[in-house]
Amino acid sequence: QVHMVESGGGWVQAGGSLRLSCVAPLETFTTYAMGWFRQAPGKEREFVATISWSGDSTVYADSVKGRFTVSRDNAKNTVYLQMDSLKPEDTAVYYCAADPQRNYPLLSVVPGDYNYWGQGTQVTVSS
């Protein structure tokens, strides 16, 4: 059982910023792509961003492109999501997830391709 832990969520006004962190205690962390997903009340979980094991490749959802930045520190087994210019529609529970990249070098936006998940952290953006 892998317990990934997100932190950094909270309340912020529209236009503000938050930085989420996720520690993934995976022995082979550098073999996993790491993704961020979110789920708003009454909606399905949706893809936000993902980053390759090396950090060289990233993919973003159109809704966050240019505002969010995903990064990772392999020495710390940690992935980050910097969220700027936040909007009320960004309000959701944010989850990090690990993908063993069965289709390497392709990066997946599909939740089912991710093996391990964190418990989620709430982000609330007020207008």
* Helix percentage range: under 10%
Q: What is the overall shape?
A: globular
Radius of gyration: 14 Å
User: How many strand units?
Assistant: 11
- Proportion of strand residues: 35-45%
Q: Tally the helices.
A: 0
Q: Give the helices and strands as they follow along the chain.
A: EEEEEEEEEEE
Biggest sheet descriptor: 7 strands, mixed
Mean pLDDT, all residues: 95
Terminal Cα span = 39 Å
Coarse structural class: mainly beta
Low-confidence stretches: none
Task: Chart the SSEs and their pairings.
Blueprint: E1 5-7, E2 10-13, E3 18-23, E4 33-39, E5 46-51, E6 58-60, E7 68-73, E8 78-83, E9 92-99, E10 116-117, E11 121-126
Plain-language structure description:
This protein is mainly beta. The protein is built from no helices and eleven strands. The protein has strands spanning about 5, 10-15, 20-25, 35-40, 45-50, 60, 70-75, 80-85, 90-100, 115, 120-125.
